[in-house]
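FAQ

Q: What does a record look like?
A: Structure on top, sequence underneath. For example:
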């Protein structure tokens, strides 16, 4: 397991139920001077805030009592949030190093989502699971998972 994945797992466990109540609010300490640049800046921050809001809402799942199932149910939307934010970086960012990092995040996090979904499908059913549980999906994958 990568060190980054371990840190993310610990962060999710520490944040726990508060994640669903957390809202990302961007406050720009320096007003934008150039209108075009300011509009792009606002679009960037709006897209990032939307990704954060979606992620924190989707991470607020009912606990099943199965640590493996609960871990994956919270981490899938967390990883999807990272993918969404990386896509925003690719849309607005210019730094070549950060753009390459964003591309790597998309590939790696999607792979980890696929692994977690596969493992979830192999776990015994939980009584509190629903067939179309939002935690098992992402907003970019609207099809319900198959039981």
């Amino acid at each position: 397991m990568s060190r980054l994945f371990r840190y993310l797992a610990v962060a999710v466990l520490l944040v726990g139920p508060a994640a669903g109540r957390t809202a990302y609010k961007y406050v720009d300490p320096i007003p934008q001077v150039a209108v075009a640049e300011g509009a792009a800046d606002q679009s960037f921050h709006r897209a990032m805030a939307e990704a954060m809001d979606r992620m924190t809402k989707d991470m607020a799942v009912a606990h099943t009592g199965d640590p493996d199932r609960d871990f994956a149910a919270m981490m899938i939307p967390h990883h999807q949030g990272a993918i969404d934010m990386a896509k925003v970086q690719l849309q607005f960012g210019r730094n070549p190093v950060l753009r390459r990092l964003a591309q790597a995040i998309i590939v790696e996090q999607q792979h980890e989502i696929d692994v977690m979904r596969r493992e979830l499908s192999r776990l015994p059913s939980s009584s509190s699971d629903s067939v179309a549980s939002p935690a098992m999906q992402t907003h970019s994958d609207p099809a319900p998972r198959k039981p």
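Q: Is there anything notable about this one?
A: The chain has four helices and no strands.
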